[in-house]
From TrEMBL:
Its main location: cytoplasm. Belongs to the cystatin family. The gene is CSTA. It comes from Oreochromis aureus (Israeli tilapia). Residues 4-101 form the Cystatin domain. This is Cystatin-B. PANTHER family: CYSTATIN 14A, TANDEM DUPLICATE 1-RELATED, CYSTATIN FAMILY MEMBER. GO terms for cellular component: cytosol. GO terms for molecular function: cysteine-type endopeptidase inhibitor activity. It holds the Pfam family Cystatin. GO terms for biological process: cellular response to bacterial lipoprotein; immune system process. CDD domains: CY. Keywords: Cytoplasm, Immunity, Protease inhibitor, Thiol protease inhibitor.
Length: 101
């Protein structure tokens, strides 16, 4: 039997090339509101949820001991297939769990 619950979040997985690409695509959106420029912006791990598109919850290393948790919605191809940042949490650490917010 599968551990996946329809509409539920996956378990935390190690980030891959696709996750890093999503981070690169949304980096400007993340930097806009706090007007910060992150020299480092590396996806570490993520969770996902299939809805009318895909929600991603991504842990991003931004330098030193600093991490962000990002909520990103990836639209379906019929809706332009773009990624939109729907939430950012600052002041996280390496061992903080990814909890949907």
């Amino acid at each position: 039997m599968s551990d996946v619950i329809c509409g539920g979040w996956t378990k935390t997985k190690k980030a891959d090339e696709q996750t890093q690409k999503i981070c690169e695509n949304v980096k400007n959106q993340v930097e806009e509101e706090p007007q910060k420029n992150y020299a480092e912006f590396h996806a570490v791990e993520y969770r996902s949820q299939v809805v009318a598109g895909i929600n991603y919850l991504i842990k991003v290393h931004v330098g030193g001991t600093n991490y962000l948790h990002l909520m990103v919605f990836h639209k379906l191809p019929c809706n332009a297939g773009q990624e939109v940042v729907t939430g950012v949490q600052e002041h996280h650490h390496k061992d903080d769990p990814l909890v949907p917010f």
